[in-house]
Amino acid sequence: MAASSPTVPLPPEAAHDKPQPVDLDRCVHCGLCLNACPTYRELGVEMDSPRGRVYQMVQVANGAPITESYKEHIDLCLACRGCESACPSGVQYGRLIEAARSEIENTTQRGWLSKTVRDFVFRKLLPSPALLTAAGASLWMYQVSGLQKVLRATGLVNLLGPLAAREALSPPAEIPFFFREIGKTFPAEGTRRYRVAFMAGCIANVSFARLNEATVRVLRKNGCEVVIPVSQTCCGALHVHAGIRDEARKLARRNIDAIEETIAQGGFDAIITNAAGCGSTLKEYDELLEHDPKYAGPAKQFKLLMKDVTEFLASIELNRDLGTIDATVTYQDSCHLSHGQKIRKAPRELLAAIPGLKFREMPLADMCCGSAGIYNVLHTDLSMSILEKKMSNVNLTKAEIIATANPGCMIQLQAGVKKWGRGERVVHIVELLDEAYRENA
């Protein structure tokens, strides 16, 4: 089926939202990416490998129509970017898959229901603290009222049909939400060594409020004055992954402006995120806004300051006043931290710094767990198949704790522990550091 025209005029930047020849031409079709691709390992289909998808992108770039088959193969990609680490030719596959999805979004018309749901989630819910608070409060009531427990215990949740598997992936709602801290400045403990801005996220303010609080505490323990910019918003990562780049650009501009407003009160040594998936997009604002004459320069400056929290903590003289955690831990590499940001050593160094903690490396630690933004919601069966293999590797370590550096991975791994695990505790590395500092308080 040939591509149809979009229903609304597109901004000038959308002309660049398609795979570019200079990026496509880097692929020599050697196939070294195949074994690094979770969907190829699961399905064994060439068109669901990075090489196969690049081949299809080339055909579309040369004039082939955007068919339903093409859309399906592009949509099935986790965008984990494991192929980038395996590629000897430096193919920027993440850039390609995001551009392909944007081209599909801009040139095809979705059905009414799909369009309505996507517009609400991406354009209204994620950027709105008020709507996220309402959604989080509803989820909290569902969980603490006992309704969730009853539905799961009795099996009545299965009456939801395909939604039952998705319900198992619902994150906790952690009241009080972190939104109450937005706009505040937290002083360093002891001598101030650094001044940092913390990007708190969107869903994280509801479902990972305690993680955000732990992040602030750990940064303060390490001599950081922590500023939570008042005008910050959703980073746009989910939008970019879904091909909704026009909205992602709006969010990027708002976040750059939020930092600029706060910098007026004093410069920053770093801008911090504790979500690897968000960090990967935040570090690519320069690509997202490269054709914006007003924001291209500020986006480059923003990128220079942007740091994952593990990256930042491993780069400074870490406060070693840590208590003992007597446990065995393994580490799951977040795809967008290891493959997107090329950060692998820092998380392991931080784990090694905690007294008493015994580290065991799992096989294929940097293979995707199947979370991939909202992939586990959209392609639950395939996601769970990928997760089952991940949990087999986790169980081989006999670790009591699974550490990672991304909230999305945490949700996925918690679901994996419930289904295939041995009662492991799933935590963010920062939560372990916070626990160790508090042990020694």
- The CATH C-level name of the largest domain is Mainly Alpha
Radius of gyration in whole Å, from Cα?
Answer: 21 Å
Please give the order of strands in the largest beta sheet.
1-3-2-4-5
N-C termini distance: 64 Å
Describe this structure in words.
This protein has 24 helices and nine strands. It has helices at residues 21-24, 38-43, 50-61, 68-75, 82-86, 93-107, 112-125, 129-144, 147-154, 163-167, 204-207, 209-221, 237-242, 245-263, 276-282, 285-288, 296-305, 309-315, 335-340, 345-352, 375-378, 380-397, 407-420, 429-439, and strands spanning 185-186, 194-198, 224-227, 270-273, 306-308, 327-331, 357-359, 401-404, 425-428. The strands form two sheets. Strands 1-3-2-4-5 form a five-stranded mixed beta sheet. Helix 23 links the parallel strand 8 and strand 9. Helix 12 (209-221) packs across helix 24 (429-439), helix 18 packs across helix 20 and helix 22 (380-397) crosses helix 23. The N and C termini lie far apart (64 Å).
Task: Spell out the key features of this protein.
9 strands, disordered N terminus, Fumarate Reductase Iron-sulfur Protein, Chain B, domain 2, about 450 residues, 4 domains, five-stranded mixed beta sheet, alpha/beta, 24 helices, four-stranded parallel beta sheet, Glutathione S-transferase Yfyf (Class Pi), Chain A, domain 2
Topology:
Layout: H1 21-24, H2 38-43, H3 50-61, H4 68-75, H5 82-86, H6 93-107, H7 112-125, H8 129-144, H9 147-154, H10 163-167, E1 185-186, E2 194-198, H11 204-207, H12 209-221, E3 224-227, H13 237-242, H14 245-263, E4 270-273, H15 276-282, H16 285-288, H17 296-305, E5 306-308, H18 309-315, E6 327-331, H19 335-340, H20 345-352, E7 357-359, H21 375-378, H22 380-397, E8 401-404, H23 407-420, E9 425-428, H24 429-439
Parallel strand pairs: 2-3, 2-4, 4-5, 6-7, 6-8, 8-9
Antiparallel strand pairs: 1-3
Helix pairs in contact: 3-6, 12-24, 18-20, 22-23
